[in-house]
Amino acid sequence: NAGVMQNPRHLVRRRGQEARLRCSPMKGHSHVYWYRQLPEEGLKFMVYLQKENIIDESGMPKERFSAEFPKEGPSILRIQQVVRGDSAAYFCASSPDGAEQYFGPGTRLTVT
Amino acid sequence: GQNIDQPTEMTATEGAIVQINCTYQTSGFNGLFWYQQHAGEAPTFLSYNVLDGLEEKGRFSSFLSRSKGYSYLLLKELQMKDSASYLCAVRVEGYQLTFGKGTKLSVIP
To answer: Residue B40: its pLDDT value, please?
Structure first.
């Protein structure tokens, strides 16, 4: 059983561009979480999704950030008009039942 | 707000025992997790406590006291590969985890 997969592993964007981060959960997992980790900071919760539904987006910035988990395909975290402060590692975690979370390897976003 | 405190860094000797403490003040409590994270890699699950007491899993043990808002992770027979950051996380409500900043453990020969 493959683990949680994220791509790309590294992403470089210029200010103002869009960033799309993908997360494929473990097989059989229907719960997906996105976290952001800034340098020297702890992981911060962003959003919790189940198939086709956003359950909790209380940690997501109100503007420029959006997330989806369609019926088919990976979960997508989308950042529009990126700024330097968006540079961070973005981790996705999946769970079969909403309890124990298994993390992917992360996408390291650098905004130049 | 939610507050989770753990030491920033610790150093221990190969073969020794080390205890990493975590204290929390949160608006709710629905379980405490410990994760290990090597530099540049994903956090990996180590332990989960929801009731008071000690949970043992091989060289790793985790303790919880809900009345004191306190947990510790105990690592025995330290190995060089145990050099990593150890993250304490509390599930406050729902299913999201609130993480501390992590404790960077360096194991020296």
So the answer is: 84
What pLDDT sits at residue A74?
A: 95
DSSP output for B12-66: EETT--EEEEEEEE-S--S-EEEEEE-TTS--EEEEEE-SSEEEEETTEEEEEET
Question: How far is residue B19's CA from residue A83's CA, in Å, rounded to a whole number?
Answer: 40
- CB nearest A104 (choices: B42, B48, B102): B42
Q: Is B101 on the interface with A (CB under 8 A)?
A: yes
The answer to whether the CB of A67 falls within 8 A of the CB of A75 is: yes
Quick: pLDDT tens for B47-59: 999 999 999 989 9
pLDDT at A1: 53
**Distance (Å, whole) CA A64 – CA A10:** 20
Dihedral, A47, A48, A50, A54 alpha carbons, nearest 10: -50
At residue A44, the 3 state secondary structure works out as: strand
The stretch B81-109 carries a mean pLDDT of 92
What gap in Å lies between CA A4 and CA A103, rounded to an integer? 6
